């Protein structure tokens, strides 16, 4: 009996950790103290493998997007991490197509799992028309746009991918992204040009690069675009009639506002209305989307706690600057290679200098000290920038690079989840 209870609790923990359940949910279960014998592990293996297979099977099928609403798609054998996450958080459906609301999108980039709900809400034509009429023009965009729209809006799967791309772009990347949409080079983007984005994000990841396309191919794509279902983003950018055009200044402001909105949400989650967050909470924010094991994360947090006995706190401005710095990791990599030889560990001074080169601003000494406390395991005042960049890229992309969800086969993923769980019993 005790073994059965233990097996059940271990299985719940594995599913929570590896399939995206909210952290607070884990507190509702208590592990029964018992010895894990071979029979228990065998039972766990069977349960976990069967559940994992069922999880994949559940999400196999067709993922429809508004750009090709009437076309049938072939069933995907292995859904990507992004597809599964979109389906997991998307809460509404209209004319057979699944959409996110603005609230769904914000939750998908700040939470481990969506709000509890029973199925998706089927929308009527009048409801959708009412939502789109309430969508503000781009002139009234702000850092609270998505929060103000709340659950009254439509975001398609390809727009979801676009918004995720927005969150990971540096200021210099804004212009590159805009030029990708500006197919005729007139410094403005119309609705049809923006819809070319859909073909870009539906390409395989290895082909999804910001490189110029042939003029004939671009024109063919533009000519092939017919009527599409309006979404909140399309109405916000191009108006209710779709006749408005988007200038770079508008595009730049939208990207900055969205990044600021998500950064503010993450900060408020831990600040609880205060002006600062603790150094430990800063570490939790940085590490919660990374590929590190739970035991490694706890070790980093414990290290911060021991090295910062009296809490000084991280301000929102410092947190915002660091998050914006993370969007320049590719430039930071180049800068660090120029400062070091043979991938040697870097000092705080070298780190700060490289950040300034990439962003044009300095991080506060206390923030840099906290970062080193997180990643400098031996306390020698240096860190491996290669390892730091690898971990922070996974955080930047909010887990989409995680080997567990979309690069491992089922058996490798199973072994990984069991390995992570068993570490908690050491």
Report on the structure:
The protein is mainly alpha-helical. Helix content is 58%, strand content 5%. A hairpin with a 2-residue loop joins strand 1 and strand 2. Helix 13 packs across helix 16 and helix 17 crosses helix 18. The chain is globular. The two termini are 23 Å apart.
Secondary structure elements and their pairing?
Blueprint: H1 2-18, H2 23-26, H3 38-59, H4 81-89, E1 92-94, E2 97-99, H5 102-110, E3 121-122, H6 125-133, H7 145-149, H8 157-167, H9 171-181, E4 188-189, H10 191-201, H11 215-224, H12 232-238, E5 246-247, H13 248-271, E6 276-277, H14 279-287, H15 294-307, E7 314-315, H16 316-326, H17 329-339, E8 346-347, H18 348-359, H19 365-375, E9 382-383, H20 385-396, H21 403-406, H22 410-422
Parallel strand pairs: 1-3
Antiparallel strand pairs: 1-2, 4-5, 6-7, 8-9
Helix pairs in contact: 1-3, 1-22, 3-22, 9-13, 13-16, 14-15, 15-19, 17-18
User: Ends: how far apart?
Assistant: 23 Å
Report the sheet-strand fraction. under 5%
Low-confidence stretches: 1-76, 402-414
- Range of helix content: 55-70%
**How many DSSP H or I helices?**
22
Q: What is the 3D shape? A: globular
Task: Give the gist of this structure.
With 426 residues, the chain is mainly alpha-helical. It has helices at residues 2-18, 23-26, 38-59, 81-89, 102-110, 125-133, 145-149, 157-167, 171-181, 191-201, 215-224, 232-238, 248-271, 279-287, 294-307, 316-326, 329-339, 348-359, 365-375, 385-396, 403-406, 410-422, and strands at 92-94, 97-99, 121-122, 188-189, 246-247, 276-277, 314-315, 346-347, 382-383.
């Amino acid at each position: 009996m005790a073994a059965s209870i233990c097996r059940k609790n271990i299985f719940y923990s594995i599913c929570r950790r590896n399939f995206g359940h909210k952290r607070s949910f884990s507190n509702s279960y208590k592990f029964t103290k018992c010895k894990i014998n071979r029979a228990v592990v065998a039972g766990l293996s069977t349960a976990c493998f069967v559940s994992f297979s069922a999880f994949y099977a559940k999400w196999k099928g067709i993922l429809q997007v508004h750009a090709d609403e009437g076309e049938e798609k072939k069933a995907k054998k292995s859904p990507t991490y992004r597809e599964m996450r979109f389906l997991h958080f998307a809460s509404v459906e209209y004319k057979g197509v699944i959409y996110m609301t603005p609230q769904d999108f914000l939750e998908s980039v700040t939470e481990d799992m969506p709000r509890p709900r029973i199925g998706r809400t089927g929308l009527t034509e009048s409801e959708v028309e009412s939502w789109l009429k309430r969508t503000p023009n781009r002139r009234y965009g702000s850092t609270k746009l998505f929060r103000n729209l709340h659950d009254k809006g439509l975001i398609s799967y390809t727009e979801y991918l676009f918004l995720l791309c927005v969150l990971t772009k540096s200021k210099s990347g804004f212009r590159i992204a805009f030029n990708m949409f500006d197919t005729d080079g007139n410094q403005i983007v119309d609705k049809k040009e923006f819809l070319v984005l859909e073909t870009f994000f539906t390409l395989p990841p290895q082909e999804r690069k910001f490189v110029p396309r042939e003029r004939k191919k671009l024109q063919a794509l533009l000519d092939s675009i017919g009527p599409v279902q309006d979404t909140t983003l399309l109405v916000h950018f191009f108006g209710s009639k779709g006749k408005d055009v988007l200038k770079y200044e508008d595009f730049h402001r939208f990207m900055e506002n969205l990044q600021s909105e998500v950064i503010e949400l993450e900060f408020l989650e831990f600040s609880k209305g205060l002006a600062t967050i603790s150094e430990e909470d800063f570490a939790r924010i940085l590490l919660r989307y990374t590929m590190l094991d739970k035991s490694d994360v706890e070790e980093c947090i414990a290290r911060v706690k021991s090295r910062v006995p009296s809490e000084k706190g991280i301000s929102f401005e410092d947190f915002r600057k660091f998050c914006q710095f993370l969007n320049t990791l590719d430039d930071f990599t180049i800068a660090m290679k120029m400062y070091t030889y043979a991938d040697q560990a870097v000092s705080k001074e070298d780190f700060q200098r490289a950040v300034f080169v990439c962003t044009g601003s300095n991080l506060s000494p206390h923030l840099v000290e906290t970062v080193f406390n997180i990643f400098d395991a031996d306390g020698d005042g240096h860190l491996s920038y290669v390892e730091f960049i690898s971990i922070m890229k996974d955080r930047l992309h909010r887990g989409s690079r995680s080997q567990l969800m979309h690069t491992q086969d089922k058996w490798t993923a199973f072994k990984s989840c069991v390995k992570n769980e068993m570490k908690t019993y050491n």
